[in-house]
Amino acid sequence: MRIDKVLEGDIRSAARLMRDLDDRVPSAIEELKALYPHTGNGYIIGITGNPGAGKSTLVDSLISVYRNASLRVGVVCVDPTSPFSGGAILGDRIRMQRHASDSGVFIRSLATRGQLGGLSRSTFDVASVLDAMGFDRIIIETVGVGQDEIEVMKTAYTSVVVTVPGLGDDIQAIKAGILEIADVLVVNKADREGADRAVRDLFHMLDLRGGVGRQEVEIVKCIATLGTREESGIADVAKAIDSHRGRMGQQEDARRKERAKAHIAELVRGMLADRADATLRAQGGLDGLADGVVRGEQDPYTAAESVLKSL
């Protein structure tokens, strides 16, 4: 059975299951249900931030840190959807190519397929497969769309927000709503001018943030392009992630509960969307309903309600 092969760590079986889950194949969902009791051991880390902040390079270096510690690493890269194929644009996988031959590393790219919040609809599912396979660290890198990426907080146990010096003035920095979700703040490209100022600005914003103060969010400078060299600061990033995990203590169960709630809510929304699509197709699709609205035969709300009544 494919389930047994996945639990044994068979990469091909896991890759096929992930593909089927992304395509919402019913049999794959049944297999995931059987795998779920084997999850809960991998630690999920979310990496998010503004486009161009160096998230993929940071992930690439973190993989090396964890592999040097003999930890198995699974990576879920949520890429933009190709306008031609509908699949993921595999920029992240290309940048992490040097880990391709490492059996202790598995990298999977997912297309957003129009999903908001910086994640793919299948992110939870793929992370669960990696967890069941026995990966110690599961890193989720979001697509990099800016302020809307708060969904990563619901998927990960530790959320890392990456920024860089020179993003703009203080007003631009304060507008970066994704800082609200940070458990660890990373100032990447710290060899650039303005890195120390960026750290000071982040400290100031943490003081303005309600509830959680600066003492609970560590700010780390790094130069991810230097890899695992001592002066890169990558080891400090990994240490800050571990420190957050330690500070969570008994709260880790609460975080897992929040993640489960978010997963259930996402599944409900997804299932309703699938049923709505099927109902629309049965009623002739959106074109027919839109024609009725254009002709003035009904309003958009009545058209939408007619679909919901058929669910």
What labels would you give this structure?
alpha/beta; 2 domains; seven-stranded parallel sheet; 47% helix; globular
What can you see in these coordinates?
It is globular, with a radius of gyration of 21 Å. It has 13 helices and seven strands. It has two domains: 2-248, Rossmann fold (3-Layer(aba) Sandwich); 265-309. Strand 6 (184-187), helix 9 and strand 7 (218-221) form a beta-alpha-beta unit. With 311 residues, it is of the alpha/beta class.
Described by the principal axes of the CA atoms, the overall outline is: globular
Structural class of the helix and strand makeup? alpha/beta
Number of strands: 7
Give the percentage of residues in beta strands: 5-15%
Please identify, by name, the CATH architecture of the largest domain: 3-Layer(aba) Sandwich
How do the SSEs run, as a string of H and E?
HHHEHEHEHEHEHEHEHHHH
Measured between the Cα atoms of the first and last residue, the distance is: 34 Å
- Unreliable spans are 81-93, 113-118, 169-175
Let me know the CATH homologous superfamily of the largest domain.
P-loop containing nucleotide triphosphate hydrolases
Radius of gyration: 21 Å
CATH topology category name of the largest domain = Rossmann fold
Number of helices: 13
User: Mind telling me the CATH class of the largest domain?
Assistant: Alpha Beta
How would you characterize the largest beta sheet? 7 strands, parallel
Spatially, the strands of the biggest sheet line up as 3-2-4-1-5-6-7
Q: Percent of residues in helical segments?
A: 40-55%
Describe the oligomeric state of these chains in a short phrase. Answer: single chain
Whole-number total of structural domains: 2
Mean pLDDT: 81
